[in-house]
Specification:
There is one protein chain. The chain is mostly beta strands. Helices cover 0% and strands 51% of the residues. The chain is built from no helices and eleven strands. Strands 2, 4, 5, 6, 9, 10 and 11 form a seven-stranded mixed β-sheet that branches. The protein is globular.
């Protein structure tokens, strides 16, 4: 059973960089054909896909967030990390990490989500 757990600060100031880590257990992030993803849900809105890092280490980001987003990984810890720079209050959301088994936003395992608020 694969489990994912998000961690990171719940409050970030405007213009700073949001950084969240997803720790994966029960499966390796280097196993082929899986895409380790970040998704967010702003208050009162739907889910928004942020990006992923593939088992190969390649990354792909939402075009609307690409200029501010970086996803990296630490294979020794079986973790992957989201960094979102120059945040504004519009980046306030519940952030989820998840495993995509198709590369086409089909998720089979999710973390519980973590609230991040952007406020001074």
């Amino acid at each position: 059973q694969v489990q994912l757990q998000e961690s990171g600060p719940g409050l970030v100031k405007p213009s700073q960089t949001l950084s969240l880590t997803c720790t994966v257990s029960g499966g390796s992030i280097t196993t082929n054909y899986y895409y380790w993803s970040w998704i967010r849900q702003p208050p009162g809105k739907g889910l928004e896909w942020v990006g992923y890092i593939a088992a190969s280490g390649s990354t792909y980001y939402s075009p609307s967030l690409k200029s501010r987003t970086s996803i990296s990984r630490d294979t020794s810890k079986n973790q992957f990390t989201l960094q979102l720079s120059s945040v504004t209050p519009e980046d306030t959301a519940v952030y989820y990490c998840a495993r995509d088994f198709s590369g086409d936003v089909c998720f089979d395992y999710w973390g519980q989500g973590t609230q991040v608020t952007v406020s001074s």
